[in-house]
Each structure stands twice: as C-alpha cells, then as structure tokens.
C-alpha cells in the first residue's frame, strides 16, 4: 500500500506542473526564434532552481522563533568593519508581469501564459500552501518573484512582514536647527518708510540706471 504524498510534496509537484506547460512553449519559441535562446535558457534554469529551493525549504522542519536578544553594552570596537558583499544583480526585470509582456502575441503562447497565470493564482491561494507559509514564512521569498513575473497580485498571507524601524539613540550634543525662513525680526529693527518715500524710481534718475552715452558728431 502506497503512502499518500505529504502536503509539501504535493505542492512541489503542483509547482512543477505549472512550469512544465510553460517549459514546452519556451522550447518551441527558442526553436523558431534563435535570438530568444539565451533568455529561454535563463528562465528554464531559474524555474528548476525555484522548484528545488521550494522542495528543500518545505521539507525542512519548522524552526522555533529566535529569542529576542538584549542590546549589547556600548563598547568601542577598534576592529575595522567587515566589507559588505556586493549584491549580484538579477538578469530579470523587476516590473510587474514583465514575462507576460515579453512573450510574443500568438494564440498558442497567450493560452499557455494565461494557463500558468491562473494556475499560479490557485496555487498561492490553496489552503495547504497557506498553512505551510504560516509555519515557514521564508517560502514567501521564493514565491514572490514568480508571482511578480506572471502578473499575480500578492495575497495577504504572501506579503512580506513590515520592517521594524530601528530607534536611533538620542544625540547628547544636538546641533541647533538652522532657521532659513522666516527669519524672526525684532520690532525695533523694522523701519517704517517716510511719508515722502514713493518707492524706487525707474528711469534715468535711478543710480543703477546706465549712463547715457554721448556720441560725437562726425563731420563729412
């Protein structure tokens, strides 16, 4: 008597079946369009890695949450900080539904893309996956890029948790704020114009007006 597949094994097979139909269509496109061969190779390799990562992460036992560490005492560390590794850029776009816009507009390709789109919607909303995500939230990092490329809106259970903002330590010697505008004035510094003041004269009488040139008469 064969044992029934576990929930994570059934989910892995479902995810593999979603990519299988798109795999056949991508190979057919690469045979007719030689220029699309590098992109198709990248996509098929990425889909295989997604299935492998999902199967490994889903098979691992759920780890208990890490205890909250107490803040370490303020000790001046003389060791130089470790250089951070540069993040490897992704060869794919980050726009929503970029894969659907990249495919050619043919009836066969449109049907395959639509089938993968709706199968992925049913997959991310299945009760087994929702229960698995509740125990292992790290699976969301594997599925979110797939949903983005196939144009699937993220449900609430697949969205990343909000990041907690770190509270900055208060500065013991804060700098005074620089006031740019408006500048507070002392009432004693305000000058009331004289009654005979009629504003700045615009014309030759103004001291900023350019001087009048005198031209010498040329005798013929």
Polypeptide structure, described:
- This protein is an all-alpha fold and 220 residues long.
- Helix content is 41%, strand content 0%.
- It contains six helices and no strands.
- Helix 1 packs antiparallel against helix 2 (37-59).
Brief descriptors of the model:
220 residues
Q: On the 0-100 scale, what is the average pLDDT?
A: 77
Decide which structural class fits the backbone: mainly alpha
Helix tally equals 6
Tell me the quaternary state. single chain
Q: How many extended strands?
A: 0
**For the report, how would you describe the main beta sheet?**
none
Shape: flat
Order of helices and strands: HHHHHH
How much of the sequence lies in strands comes to under 5%
Termini separation comes to: 127 Å
Helix content: 40-55%
Given as residue ranges, the uncertain stretches (5+ residues, pLDDT < 50) are none
Q: Rg, please?
A: 35 Å
């Amino acid at each position: 008597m064969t044992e029934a597949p576990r929930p994570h094994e059934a989910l892995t097979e479902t995810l593999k079946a979603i990519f299988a139909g798109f795999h056949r269509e991508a190979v057919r496109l690469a045979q007719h369009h030689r220029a699309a061969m590098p992109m198709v190779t990248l996509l098929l390799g990425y889909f295989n890695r997604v299935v492998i990562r999902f199967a490994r992460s889903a098979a691992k036992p759920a780890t208990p949450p890490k205890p909250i560490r107490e803040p370490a005492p303020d000790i001046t560390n003389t060791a130089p900080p470790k250089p951070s590794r540069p993040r490897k850029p992704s060869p794919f776009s980050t726009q929503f539904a970029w894969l659907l816009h990249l495919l050619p507009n043919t009836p066969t390709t449109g049907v395959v893309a639509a089938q993968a789109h709706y199968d992925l919607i049913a997959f991310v909303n299945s009760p087994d996956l929702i229960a698995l995500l509740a125990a292992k939230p790290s699976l969301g990092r594997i599925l979110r890029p797939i949903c983005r490329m196939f144009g699937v809106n993220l449900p609430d259970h697949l969205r990343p948790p909000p990041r907690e903002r770190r509270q900055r330590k208060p500065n013991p010697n804060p700098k005074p704020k620089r006031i740019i505008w408006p500048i507070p004035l002392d009432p004693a510094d305000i000058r009331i114009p004289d009654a005979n003041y009629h504003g700045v004269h615009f014309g030759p009488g103004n001291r900023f007006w350019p001087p009048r040139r005198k031209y010498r008469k040329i005798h013929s």
